[in-house]
Amino acid sequence: MKALVQKDFYVIWKQMKIFVLVLVLLSMVNSAFNTMFLVVWCSMLPYTAMAYDERSHWNQLAAMMPYSKRDIVLSKYVLGWICMAASGVFCLAVQAAAGIFSGNGPSVLTLLASLCLGIISLDITLPAVLRFGVERGRMIFMVVFFGVAVSIGVLVDVVDELPSLPIPLMALLPLGAAAGTALSIPLSIKLYQ
Amino acid sequence: MNAIELNHIHKRFPGFAIQDLSLAVPSGTICGLVGENGAGKSTTIRLLMNALRPDSGTVRVLGVDAASPEFRAVKEDVGVVLDEAYYPETLTAVQVGKVMAGTYRRWEQGTYEGFLRRFGLPEKKPFKDFSRGMKMKLAIAVALSHQPKLLILDEATSGLAPIVRDEVLEIFNEFTREEDHSILISSHILSDLEKLCDYIAFLHQGRLLFCDEKDQLLEAYGIFTGTAEQLESLREEAVMGREASGYGGVRALVRRDEVPAALELERASVEDIILFMVKGAK
């Protein structure tokens, strides 16, 4: 599976250069929306790699190699997780550095909520994209992305008042991400052709 | 032992079906898989590598059932080149090598780099800027760099310049000098198959019309050239296919054992045999 993740990183590397630039610019503005936007955007990077795979019919070639179906599916999740985690850490570092001058420290809670949302959006969209391909799965993706965008809008309001929220409500997001992943991976393996 | 065994395979798709396909490729031999576009060659290759499950029948590769969990390990021993399925286009040859090093346990980086040099492939150029011939050469380099025992090649020589094609055919010949090394190759270039193969298997509309030793095949058939009346005088079973030749004459592929020994026949090439049989089948 490591080789498959490595291949995907090579594939998206060019895209990453533009991405890192946007990441730097947006990270410097310390807002909950920017953090969430960046992390959820990162959760889409596996689809960029999959679009390149489809164009070259890589999946047909991969089916001839000693990869299991599980490895192929799992590599897309791992790619999404690594990209989200990397952008989250980067955001945190840039915001911490900017905070030295502005006095506003980074919000770890916002970042954790963003990571959970990114994972949930990946959990919902990946099975459909793996089954129907990037082009047809894009429709499903748009619907989910719209849902996530609305959730971000709602959560931004909620996050601003986090200290007064009861802890179980915040615990719902990691629980949702964990349960979503536990359901999504076996479903993706079943749906992947 | 057979390197490849397909036993009574059936696989149905909308508008096309593989029907009762049985094929055996003995270990240490080269088998050419011939057929028109859509005859089922690529489907057969996908069935062989368990990328497709048959509706019924069994597939064994290097002695292991393709449907068994052990088959994943067998894929380490099989080098595959596919027509129209490549590495993602932003990858370079060096990156492909690094990915394959993590894919195959017996990956030989030195062998791979040797093939890159031998084929004159650029190391840092993205795959999307490769010509079709270069893409095929890279795929062949990968297929030969992880100590395979079996090569499955789908149109691997198409797009290559004649001189390079000859070099690649020589590499395939060298590969089968090891007695447990085998090749299944599909190609539209029948002259390549005639040079290379020990066996020829002919697929037509999802059915295997024959799988014979090439030398036996060339001995069994001949080309008749004469008048329509002369051809009509032969037994119906003797004529496998016919075509009009110039000046009102006919050319026909005939079975040597079904015509009088005195009848003068030209030597039939594999290409003649296949082309006449396709026409005969239509």
What features would you describe in this structure?
- The complex is a heterodimer of chains A (193) and B (282).
- Chain A has 193 residues and is mostly helical.
- Helix content of chain A is 86%, strand content 0%.
- Chain A contains 7 helices and no strands.
- In chain A, helix 1 packs across helix 3 and helix 2 (32-42) packs antiparallel against helix 5 (69-102).
- The mean pLDDT of chain A is 82.
- With 282 residues, chain B is of the alpha/beta class.
- Chain B has 10 helices and 14 strands.
- Chain B has helices at 41-48, 71-74, 93-101, 109-118, 132-143, 162-175, 190-196, 214-220, 228-232, 270-281, and strands at 2-13, 16-26, 30-34, 56-61, 64-65, 78-81, 150-154, 182-186, 199-204, 207-213, 221-226, 239-244, 250-255, 266-267.
- In chain B, the strands form 3 sheets. A 6-stranded mixed sheet of chain B has the order 6-7-8-3-9-10, sandwiched between helices.
- The model of chain B has no long low-confidence stretch (mean pLDDT 89).
Please sum up the structure shown.
The complex is a heterodimer of chains A (193) and B (282). With 193 residues, chain A is mainly α.
State the main characteristics:
heterodimer, A: 193 residues, mainly alpha, 0% strand, globular, B: alpha/beta, 2 domains, four-stranded antiparallel β-sheet, 14 strands, 29% strand
